[in-house]
Amino acid sequence: MMELYAYTYVGPEEIRRSVASFPAGTSIVSMSGLETWLTANPDALAEGATYVVDLQGRLRLAPRRSEHVACAGGEEVLAAGEIRFRRASGQLTVAEVSNQSTGYCPDTDCWTAVALALGWAGVNPPPGFTREVIFRRCTRCGERNLVKEGWFVCVFCDADLPARWNVGSRRGIQVEEPA
Prior knowledge:
Elements: E1 2-7, H1 13-18, E2 26-28, H2 31-40, H3 44-47, E3 49-53, E4 59-63, H4 68-71, E5 79-88, E6 91-97, H5 111-120, E7 134-137, E8 144-147, E9 170-175
Antiparallel strand pairs: 1-9, 2-4, 3-4, 3-5, 5-6, 7-8
């Protein structure tokens, strides 16, 4: 067992309500499952997909412009972001993967959950995010910020942003390691 963090949804409530009846993302637990999903979603190889890692450590995929909270079925997640696959020498590999989700704003340490979920699905993960996104909540105005180029200053009120992740609540949970 290993401890990972479960992230709660921190995005606008009106978005959560507007997608509440949408189906959750497709759970990908094997390479054949990924192939089936990509066949059903042919644009995904070119433009990528929305992903979450659910609380059981499974990768869930939805078309690229889907809301992460819909992909997660409204639940907490271990990770969320965007992913794009490519075929190289007849094999599916990860071309790009990020933690860019303004609905969950996961910290960069969610990479462990992403790597595990990809491994369980039969995909060799890259060494880390190809694009890491740093999120912080301003302690002065309360707005969520995307930190760019190491500039920890709120874009809304110019206050300094905290050095450590503080966007919402997260809790440690135990996840089974792959056999």
